[in-house]
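Lab manual, section 2.4: Encoding a predicted structure.

Procedure: take the sequence of the chain (98 residues), apply the prediction step described in section 2.3, and record the output as structure tokens. A sample record is shown.
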Amino acid sequence: MKGKFDALVSQDQPVLVDFYADWCGPCQMMVPVLKEVAQEMGDRLKVIKVDVDKNQPIAQRFGVRSIPMLILFKSGEIQWKKAGAITKRELTQLLSQV
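Recorded output:
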């Protein structure tokens, strides 16, 4: 996963990474929000999900201590991090700054 992850977040296109776990209630609340935003942004944004239970080394590498954790990458650089469930409006505002 590590090589694939690095290749994905190194693209010029912004990549929003959702660090989550299946057992996490707030993570489940983010699913429809992320789907809507991904559809609206189309080719301008890629959204990927990383299960912290199955990908602990990646979660540790980026200091994911609470979930859900959203991290936006562009060209391999972290643009911002946001912990906890957020509204579609908040997410859209964060993405508009990039």
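Check your result against the sample. The two ends are 26 Å apart (CA to CA).
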